[in-house]
């Protein structure tokens, strides 16, 4: 069952107020999560949390603490903002060059590259 929530109160319910009542499906029971897990491996995006998790979410909580340090306000102000600005500038220059030459642009590919380049720069210092 897939559920899409748009109401901010519903989103708060799932992500904050009752977070431990909901978890990701087991990769053994869901083809999407099976292949997603094979693609990204073990980590915050694939570990199960809450009541449905085999370890009651212990592994997920460890990953969450690690991620919380990366996405701090100070890190964003000191590093992420610069990275996103630099990568956005490169993307704008690419779009301007394509517009001048009349070249078609695959925006989905450009945004994917923007996202991956930014994440690699923020997490690993290179891209």
Describe it.
With 127 residues, the chain is mainly alpha-helical. It contains five helices and no strands. α4 runs antiparallel to α5. The model has no long low-confidence stretch (mean pLDDT 87).
How many H/I helical runs?
5
Oligomer: single chain
Mean pLDDT comes to: 87
Order of helices and strands: HHHHH
Write down the overall geometry: globular
Into which percentage range does the β-strand content fall?
Answer: under 5%
Low-confidence stretches: none
End-to-end gap = 37 Å
- Cα-based radius of gyration, to the nearest Å: 19 Å
Q: Count of DSSP E strands?
A: 0
> Can you give the helix content as a percent range?
55-70%
How many strands, what sense, and barrel or not for the largest sheet? none
Q: Given the helix and strand composition, which structural class is it?
A: mainly alpha
